[in-house]
C-alpha cells in the first residue's frame, strides 16, 4: 500500500519544497484549510536533504527510512542542467511513502518510471517548470496533485495504472511481484503440475513449452519428457524452469519400488491431520470405492524408515495383515508424502576410495579414459543421476561397477 | 538466513559531525570500496534502465568531480588536473565525493540510536548514529552522592536531582537537564565537545531479494553493538573524537605530501586502534567470523566482541534454495523444544552434552595462551566434558558446579568452539545424515584415516551405518573398542556426517478400549440420570426416599415409577386451582416421556455386548467393534476428558505394577515431540530398563522415526 505520494522540487529562493502530495498533508501541512489537519507521516525538515539531496546523489534511485522506522521514502531525485533555469539547473523528485515492512522491490520501477517520464516531459515542453505558480487548469493540463492521487489510488487498488498526462505522454505502470530464481532442473527430476495447463494454455504460447507441458504426467522424468516431446534436453530443462518460476509445477524424483523413503519432521503434521491433510491424501491415493481409514493412512505414512525399500515396506504391512496395494496407489501415496514434506527420498551413492584419494591429492581424474561410471564414484552423485545420464538401470549400473578396474573392496555404497 | 560475505558487504566507514567544521569522513575500510557502477538497478526494468541511460548524458554535470576522473586510475595515487586542482584518492568513496557522503551520512538527531538505512542505488548504508547528549558533553555524569569530583556537570545534575544513571543512554539523562543547563553556564560552552555526533556506517550491496534479511541480521548483531561499543569508549575517554582528529590530521598531511593511499592506510591502521578496529570488524564480519576489537583507550584496553551467530543445526532438510546449508547437523533436538520444556528445571542440563568442535588439546592450549582467573576451571571443564555426558552428569563430578558448567558451555558455544548435542550413546541409532556434504568426502577420508588408522575407511563405515539402522554398538567389534568407536562417532557428528535416528510416539486407542470406555461412560450416565430423575421426583420429605430405595443401576419398573410420580402431588399442593392441575399434568407428561427415553436407553445399553478385555486389543476384531476406528491421542500429556479416560483404561491393561506405574510416568513423552531415546536421561533411569518398559507398551503406541 502506498501511504503517500509526492512531488518535491528545489526552488532557488525557498530551497526544497513539497509542491504536490497525496493524501494532502501527508508530508507538509496542506494549504487546503477545509480539511481537518492531520499530523504528517514524516518530518520533512529532517528528510529534505534525502528528498532533494546534493547533486552527487541525484539521478539515482534513493531510499531512506523515517527516524521512527515506520515508513520508507522511495525517490529518484533528478537534476536537469540547462542555462534557461535560474541557477542553471532544475531539481525535482517524485517519491512514494510506504510502510517500512512492505516489500519495496515492486515499487522501485514505479519510482524510476515517474522520474524518467517527468524528466522527459520537462525536457520536451517544460511540463514541470511551466506549471509553477499556475495551479489552474488553464492550459487543459491536469494539476499534478490530482495526477498523483490517481496514480496512488490505481496502484493501491488495481496494482497498475494507465494515465494520460498530456497528448503525448501516458503513465503506464504495474506492480510486479518479485520471484526468486528457480532452482536448476535436472534430468532425473519428475515434474508434477500444480495447475491445469489445459485451461490456461493457448496456441500463442512458446512451442517448446507447449510440447513439454503435454508430457508432464507426474511419472516421467525430464529426460523422458524431452525424448517424448522431441525437444533437446537443455531446452526441456529451460522450459520447465520457466514453469517453476511461475510456481506452476514442482519437482520430485523418480519413483522405484526398490527405492527407499523415510519420514522427516513434517510427518507430525500428517499425524495431526493439519488442514485435513489425511483426507486430502485419501482422495489422492484411494482406488475407486475403497477408502482406507485415516488411522491406516497415518500408520502407513509413519512406517517409512531409512534402510527399508518400498517393496520391503509393502511386505511388512502384508505380514501385518494389511494389503496396501488393494487400497491405495503406492506411487501416489509416496508422492503425496514427498510433496507435503512428510517423507524424503534416501538416495543411493557409490564411492571409490581410489578415486577419492586421487581427488584428495588434487588429481581430479586419476585414470584417464576410464569407464564413464568412474566420474560418479566420488559420493556426490546418486544413482538416479547415473540412471538418467547413462541410460542404465540400477542393476546394469551395479554390474558395470563390478567390472570397474579397481582393487577388490575399493567400492562402497552408502545411502543418505 | 542470507550470509554476509565480501560480495554483499563492501565496507565500513566512520563519519563524524562537528559543531564548527561540519561533517567529516574520517576513515573507511577497505581502502578501495569495490563497487561496480554499471550494475545499477538490478531490480528495475531493462526498458526503464535504457530509458534512464538515454536521459543521463543530457544530465551531465561538469561540476561533479567524479565525471572528471580519468578512466585508467588505480585510485591510489594523487592526480593533478590541467586546471591545477588535486584529486585525492581517498576523497572519493564508492564513487561518491567523500565530503558529500559525509553530509548524507550524518543524519539529524531524530536518528539518534535508531536504525538509519539509506540506499544509494546500488549501495545500501546501514547504521546506528550516535549523537552527543543535548548538553553537548559526551562524558557521562556521575551519579549524585557518588563522590563529587568538582565536575560542573555533576553539580548541575545534583541540582536537578536527576539520577537515573543506570540507564546507559546519556541522551535520556541530559534531556531532563538540558534547558537549565544551557542557560546557567555560558562558559560551559568551552567544555562542549566539538564533535556532535559519530556514525559507523556499514556499506552493503545486497541482492534484490536479500535486502531485508541482510540488513536485519547485520543491524541487530553487529551495527548496533559496534556503535554502542564506540559510544562507550567515547563517553569514557573521548576516544572516538581524539582518534578521529589524529586520523584526519594524518590525512591532511598526506594530502599535502601527495602520499599514496595504500601507504597512508597502512600508517593509519598502525597508529590508530580505532582504525584497526574497523579493519577487524570488516574482515571478521565479511568472513562470518567473530569480530574481537581491541580499543586502546587512555583508560585502558576495551575488548568488545560481536558476531552474526552462525546456525549449527537445521531441523529439516533444507530446500534447494541456493543457500548452502549442507554439512550442518540435522536435528530436531532444539527445534522441537516447547516453551514448557525449556522452563522445566534441569531439562537442558540432562538432555544436552558438549561436543567440542576442535581438538581438545588445541582448545586447552588456546585457553592457556590467554590466561585469566577462570582459565584453570575452564581447562578442567574441557577435560571433563565428554560428548557422552550430559551437563548434569558433568556437574555431578563435584569438581565444577552446575552453574559453572552452564556458564563455560555457553562461553564455548558463543566462541564457536563447541556445540550442545544430546549425549551420544552406543545403544542409540545413528544414520548417515541426509544433509551431509559429500564434497567433503575426499578430504575427510584422509583426515579420518589419520585420526583412526585402525578403523574401517570412512566410505565403508558410512556405508555400514546407512545400510540398515541399528544401535551403534553393533558396529563395534568388541566391548574393548567401545571408547574409540565413540570417539569416531563424535568426530562424525562434528563433521555433520551422521545424525541420530530418534523415535517419536503417539498413543493409539484401539476399538476395544474405545468401546470399553464408551460403555462405562454410558453406564455411569444412566446411573446418574436415574439418580437425578429420582431426585426430581423426590417429595420434600425425606421419608419417601426411604420407602423407595432404588439402587442406581437396577432397571426400574415403570408402574412403580408412575406411582412414585403421583405421590408428591398429593399432600402439600393446593388442589383448588384448575390451572395448577393442568400444569401438573403437563409436568407429569414430560417426566413420563423423559423416563421412557431413559428406560429405552437403559434397555439398549443392557442389550449391548459388555466389553470383553482381550490380551491384545489391537487384534480384537469382535463384531461389536465393527465401525470403530482406532483413535490417536496427539498429546497424551495434555489429554483431558475422554482421552484421559482412554489413557487410564489402557493403564489398567498392564498386568504388573511396574508396567502400570511406567505407563503413568511415560505417557507424557507420547506427544510426537519427545525422542523416546532421551526418556532415560530425563527420568534418571537405566536405559535398558526404560527400553524394556517401553517395549511392553508398543501395542498402544504409534511410532515414527526421524532425526
Summarize the structure in words:
By secondary structure, chain A is α+β, with helices and mostly antiparallel strands. Chain A folds into 4 domains: 2-174; 189-253, Arc Repressor Mutant, subunit A, CATH 1.10.10; 263-345, no CATH class; 348-415, no CATH class. Chain A is 37% helix and 20% strand. In chain A, the strands form 5 sheets. In chain A, strands 1, 2, 3, 4, 5 and 6 form a 6-stranded antiparallel β-sheet that branches. Chain A has a 3-stranded antiparallel β-sheet with strand order 14-13-15. Chain A has a two-stranded antiparallel sheet with strand order 7-8. Chain A starts with a strand and ends with a strand. Residues 133-137 of chain A have low confidence and may be disordered. Chain B has 707 residues and is α+β, with helices and mostly antiparallel strands. Among the domains of chain B are: 9-35 and 76-135 and 193-305, no CATH class; 516-566 and 578-607, no CATH class; 617-706, no CATH class. Helix content of chain B is 44%, strand content 13%. Chain B contains 26 helices and 22 strands. In chain B, strands 1, 2, 7, 8, 9 and 10 form a 6-stranded antiparallel β-sheet that branches. In chain B, strands 19, 20, 21 and 22 form a 4-stranded antiparallel β-sheet that branches. In chain B, strand 5 (92-93) and strand 6 (96-97) form a beta hairpin. In chain B, helix 8 (261-271) packs across helix 9, helix 19 (511-537) packs antiparallel against helix 22 and helix 19 crosses helix 23. The two termini of chain B are 22 Å apart. The model of chain B is unreliable at 37-45, 57-67, 144-190, 539-559 and 561-571 (pLDDT under 50). Strand 3 of chain A pairs antiparallel with strand 7 of chain B, so a sheet runs across the interface. Chain B: It is a peripheral membrane protein. Chain B: Residues 641-701 form the GATOR1 complex protein NPRL3 C-terminal HTH domain. Chain B: Residues 559-568 have a biased composition (Low complexity).
Amino acid at each position: 500500500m502506498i501511504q503517500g505520494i509526492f512531488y518535491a522540487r528545489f526552488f532557488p529562493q525557498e530551497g526544497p519544497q513539497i509542491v504536490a502530495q497525496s493524501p494532502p498533508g501527508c508530508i507538509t501541512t496542506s494549504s487546503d484549510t477545509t480539511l481537518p489537519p492531520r499530523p504528517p507521516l514524516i518530518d520533512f525538515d529532517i528528510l529534505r536533504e534525502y528528498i532533494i539531496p546534493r547533486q552527487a546523489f541525484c539521478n539515482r534511485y534513493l531510499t531512506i527510512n523515517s527516524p521512527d522506522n515506520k515508513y520508507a521514502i522511495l525517490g529518484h531525485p533528478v537534476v536537469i542542467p540547462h542555462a534557461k533555469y535560474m541557477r542553471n539547473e532544475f531539481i525535482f523528485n517524485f517519491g512514494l511513502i510506504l510502510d517500512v515492512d512492505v516489500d519495496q522491490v515492486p515499487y522501485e520501477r514505479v519510482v524510476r518510471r515517474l522520474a524518467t517520464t517527468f524528466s522527459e516531459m520537462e525536457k520536451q515542453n517544460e511540463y514541470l517548470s511551466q506549471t509553477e505558480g499556475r495551479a489552474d487548469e488553464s492550459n487543459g493540463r491536469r494539476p499534478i496533485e490530482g495526477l498523483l492521487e490517481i496514480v496512488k489510488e490505481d496502484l493501491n487498488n488495481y496494482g497498475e495504472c494507465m494515465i494520460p498526462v498530456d497528448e503525448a505522454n501516458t503513465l503506464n505502470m504495474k506492480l510486479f511481484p518479485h520471484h526468486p530464481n528457480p532452482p536448476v532442473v535436472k534430468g532425473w527430476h519428475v515434474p508434477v503440475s500444480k495447475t491445469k495447463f489445459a485451461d490456461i494454455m493457448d496456441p500463442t504460447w512458446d512451442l517448446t513449452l507447449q510440447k513439454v507441458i503435454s508430457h508432464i504426467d507426474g511419472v516421467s522424468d525430464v529426460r523422458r519428457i524431452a525424448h517424448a516431446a522431441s525437444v533437446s534436453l537443455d531446452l526441456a530443462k529451460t522450459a520447465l524452469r520457466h514453469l517453476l518460476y511461475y510456481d506452476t509445477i514442482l519437482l520430485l524424483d523418480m519413483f522405484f519400488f526398490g527405492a527407499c523413503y523415510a519420514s522427516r519432521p513434517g510427518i507430525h503434521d500428517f499425524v495431526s491431520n493439519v488442514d485435513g491433510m489425511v483426507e486430502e491424501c485419501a482422495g489422492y491415493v484411494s482406488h475407486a470405492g475403497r477408502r482406507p481409514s485415516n488411522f491406516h493412512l497415518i500408520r502407513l505414512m509413519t512406517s517409512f524408515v531409512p534402510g527399508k525399500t518400498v517393496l520391503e515396506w509393502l511386505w511388512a504391512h502384508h505380514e501385518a495383515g494389511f494389503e496396501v496395494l488393494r487400497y491405495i496407489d503406492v506411487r501416489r501415496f509416496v508422492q503425496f508424502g514427498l510433496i507435503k514434506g512428510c517423507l524424503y527420498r534416501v538416495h543411493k551413492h557409490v564411492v571409490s576410495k581410489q578415486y577419492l584419494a586421487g581427488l584428495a591429492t588434487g588429481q581430479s581424474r586419476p585414470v584417464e579414459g576410464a569407464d564413464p561410471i568412474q566420474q560418479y564414484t566420488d559420493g556426490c552423485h546418486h544413482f538416479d543421476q547415473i540412471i538418467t545420464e547413462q541410460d542404465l538401470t540400477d542393476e546394469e549400473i551395479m554390474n558395470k561397477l563390478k567390472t570397474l578396474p579397481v582393487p577388490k573392496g575399493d567400492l562402497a555404497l552408502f545411502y543418505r | 538466513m542470507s550470509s554476509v560475505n565480501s560480495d554483499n558487504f563492501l565496507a565500513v566507514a566512520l563519519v563524524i559531525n562537528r559543531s564548527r567544521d561540519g561533517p567529516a569522513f574520517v576513515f573507511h575500510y577497505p581502502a578501495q570500496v569495490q563497487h561496480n557502477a554499471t550494475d545499477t538497478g538490478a531490480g528495475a526494468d531493462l526498458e526503464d534502465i535504457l530509458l534512464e541511460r538515454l536521459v543521463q548524458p543530457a544530465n551531465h554535470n561538469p561540476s561533479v568531480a567524479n565525471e572528471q576522473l580519468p578512466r585508467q586510475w588505480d585510485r591510489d595515487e594523487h592526480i593533478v588536473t590541467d586546471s591545477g586542482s588535486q584529486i585525492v584518492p581517498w576523497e572519493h568513496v564508492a564513487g561518491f565525493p567523500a565530503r558529500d557522503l559525509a553530509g548524507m551520512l550524518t543524519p539529524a538527531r531524530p536518528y539518534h540510536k535508531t536504525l538509519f538505512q539509506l540506499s544509494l542505488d546500488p549501495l545500501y548504508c546501514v547504521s546506528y548514529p550516535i549523537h552527543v547528549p543535548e548538553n553537548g558533553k559526551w562524558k557521562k555524569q556521575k551519579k549524585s552522592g557518588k563522590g563529587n569530583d568538582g565536575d560542573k556537570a555533576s553539580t548541575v545534575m545534583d541540582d536537578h536531582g536527576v539520577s537515573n544513571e543506570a540507564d546507559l543512554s546519556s541522551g535520556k539523562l541530559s534531556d531532563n537537564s538540558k534547558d537549565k543547563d544551557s542557560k546557567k553556564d555560558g562558559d560551559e560552552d568551552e567544555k562542549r565537545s566539538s564533535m556532535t555526533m559519530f556514525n559507523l556506517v556499514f556499506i552493503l550491496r545486497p541482492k534484490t531479494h536479500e535486502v531485508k534479511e541482510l540488513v536485519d541480521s547485520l543491524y541487530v548483531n553487529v551495527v548496533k553493538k559496534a556503535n554502542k561499543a564506540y559510544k562507550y569508549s567515547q563517553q569514557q575517554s573521548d576516544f572516538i573524537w581524539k582518534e578521529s582528529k589524529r586520523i584526519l590530521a594524518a590525512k591532511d598531511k598526506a594530502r599535502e605530501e601527495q602520499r599514496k593511499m595504500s601507504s597512508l592506510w597502512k600508517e593509519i591502521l598502525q597508529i590508530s586502534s580505532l582504525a584497526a578496529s574497523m579493519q577487524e570488524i570488516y574482515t571478521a564480519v565479511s568472513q562470518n567470523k567473530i569480530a574481537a576489537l581491541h580499543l586502546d583507550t587512555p583508560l585502558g584496553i576495551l575488548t568488545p566482541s560481536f558476531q552474526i551467530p552462525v546456525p549449527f543445526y537445521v531441523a529439516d532438510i533444507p530446500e534447494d534454495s541456493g543457500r548452502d546449508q549442507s554439512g550442518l547437523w540435522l536435528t530436531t533436538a532444539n527445534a522441537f523444544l516447547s516453551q514448557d520444556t525449556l522452563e522445566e528445571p534441569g531439562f537442558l542440563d540432562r538432555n544436552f552434552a558438549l561436543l567440542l568442535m576442535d581438538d581438545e588439546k588445541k582448545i586447552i592450549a588456546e585457553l592457556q595462551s590467554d590466561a585469566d582467573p577462570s582459565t584453570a576451571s575452564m581447562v578442567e571443564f574441557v577435560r571433563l566434558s565428554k560428548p557422552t555426558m550430559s551437563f548434569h552428569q558433568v556437574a555431578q563430578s563435584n569438581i565444577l558446579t552446575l552453574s559453572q558448567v552452564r556458564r563455560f558451555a555457553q562461553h564455548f558455544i558463543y566462541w564457536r568452539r563447541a556445540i550442545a548435542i544430546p549425549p551420544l550413546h552406543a545403544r542409540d541409532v545413528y544414520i548417515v545424515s541426509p544433509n551431509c556434504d559429500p564434497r567433503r568426502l575426499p578430504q575427510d577420508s584422509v583426515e579420518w584415516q589419520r585420526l583412526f588408522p585402525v578403523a574401517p575407511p570412512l566410505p565403508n563405515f558410512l556405508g555400514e551405518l546407512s545400510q540398515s539402522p541399528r544401535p551403534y554398538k553393533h558396529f563395534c567389534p568388541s566391548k574393548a573398542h567401545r571408547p574409540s568407536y565413540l570417539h569416531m562417532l563424535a568426530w562424525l557428528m562434528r563433521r555433520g556426517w551422521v545424525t541420530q535416528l530418534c523415535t517419536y510416539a503417539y498413543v493409539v486407542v484401539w476399538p476395544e478400549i474405545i468401546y470399553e470406555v464408551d460403555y462405562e461412560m454410558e453406564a455411569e450416565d444412566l446411573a446418574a440420570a436415574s439418580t437425578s430423575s429420582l431426585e426430581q421426583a423426590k417429595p420434600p420429605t425425606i421419608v419417601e426416599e426411604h420407602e423407595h430405595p432404588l439402587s442406581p443401576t437396577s432397571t426400574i419398573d415403570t408402574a412403580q415409577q408412575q406411582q412414585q410420580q403421583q405421590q408428591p402431588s398429593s399432600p402439600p399442593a393446593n388442589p383448588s386451582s384448575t390451572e395448577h392441575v393442568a400444569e401438573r399434568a403437563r409436568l407429569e407428561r414430560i417426566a413420563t416421556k423423559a423416563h421412557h427415553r431413559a428406560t429405552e436407553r437403559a434397555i439398549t445399553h443392557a442389550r449391548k455386548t459388555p466389553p470383553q478385555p482381550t490380551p491384545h486389543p489391537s487384534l480384537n476384531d469382535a463384531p461389536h467393534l465393527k465401525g470403530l476406528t482406532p483413535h490417536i491421542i496427539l498429546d497424551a500429556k495434555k489429554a483431558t476428558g475422554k482421552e484421559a479416560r482412554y489413557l487410564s483404561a489402557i493403564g489398567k491393561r498392564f498386568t504388573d505394577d511396574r508396567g502400570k506405574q511406567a505407563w503413568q510416568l511415560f505417557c507424557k513423552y507420547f506427544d510426537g515431540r519427545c525422542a523416546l531415546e532421551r526418556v532415560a536421561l530425563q527420568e534418571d533411569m537405566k536405559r535398558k530398563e526404560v527400553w524394556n518398559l517401553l517395549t511392553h507398551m508398543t501395542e498402544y503406541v504409534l511410532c515414527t522415526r526421524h532425526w
